[in-house]
């Protein structure tokens, strides 16, 4: 998933960038609201983590602006303010959850995963489609109960397509799931990865869930649950 992290404390921002990247996410990490608004306008994000105590435009006003611009991705607040009034105000502005500083990364990760699941319409930490199952916590795919040998990039593409089942996903959107920087992006890589993924998913029983929609992108045709 592609995450937007807005945190002015450089060390914490670096840790969030590194730890979330290790969990398989592509992270846009910025220090202020102005840069966050630019990133949100230029790129698609699946979730945002926003510190309330930002310089200039504060976190609450940033959330208000994002929501007023129609950005519907889940937002998790980071706050050093532990009183209930601040939490209520943050949720009322359009945030979906909050974590109070200092925090354990494991709690943050669990809350992020829960928000991502709910935003995709899933309750459990697994997604199933026919003989295919994804374990979202372990980042593992299983076919007929047996583990599949997928590369990290192949898994990211499969997870994103399944989360957006029966929707056409543009090639550019998939590229953003793999690379944090524009200069690293090669559209041809997606075609190669999707081709390899299709071959690994074909279990000989006609299970071919990924279709190409010419000129638009890719479609995961199976209904996921």
Summarize the structure.
This protein has 225 residues and is an alpha/beta fold.
Structure description:
Helix content is 41%, strand content 21%. The protein is of the alpha/beta class. It folds into two domains: 2-119, Response regulator (Rossmann fold), CATH 3.40.50.2300; 126-220, Winged helix-like DNA-binding domain superfamily/Winged helix DNA-binding domain (Arc Repressor Mutant, subunit A), CATH 1.10.10. The protein has a five-stranded parallel sheet, sandwiched between helices. The protein has a four-stranded antiparallel sheet with strand order 6-7-8-9, covered by helices on one side. Helix 6 packs across helix 8. The longest helix has 15 residues, at 105-119. The two termini are 19 Å apart. The relative contact order is 0.11. The model has no long low-confidence stretch (mean pLDDT 93).
- What fraction strand? 15-25%
Write down the oligomeric state.
single chain
Number of helices: 8
The best one-word shape is elongated
- CATH evolutionary superfamily of the largest domain: Response regulator
In the predicted model, the low-confidence regions spanning at least 5 consecutive residues are none
Question: Key terms for this structure?
Answer:
single chain, 225 residues, alpha/beta, Rossmann fold, Arc Repressor Mutant, subunit A, 2 domains, 5-stranded parallel sheet, 4-stranded antiparallel sheet, elongated
